Amino acid sequence: MGQTLDDPRVLPPLMDTSELPGARVLVVDDVADSGRTLALVMDLLAKQGAEARSAVLFTKPRSDHVPVVRRAARDGCAVDGRVSPQAPR
């Protein structure tokens, strides 16, 4: 907790990409910390021909990734696209 890898990695087992070309995909992540892992996944999907969108439950302020949907937050994370100093109760 509180640590991120220098570079995101995709580890086996790898997904079957044969049905991705032309597919509409929603990638859901619980927490976007730096945003690098989610960006890697979105890039991999795009390279396979998928139309991908992302949704994130918690987006930390330092995250580089801007998801299509952001819902809840704590301690200064984004709430519905706005930055809130505290989570809604």
Automatic annotation (TrEMBL):
Q: Which domain of life is it from?
A: Bacteria
Q: Which CDD domains match?
A: PRTases_typeI
Phosphoribosyltransferase domain residues: 15-63
Q: Which InterPro entries match?
A: PRTase-like (IPR029057), PRTase_dom (IPR000836)
Q: Name one Pfam family in it.
A: Pribosyltran
* Protein name per Swiss-Prot or TrEMBL: Phosphoribosyltransferase domain-containing protein
Q: Which organism is it from?
A: Promicromonospora citrea
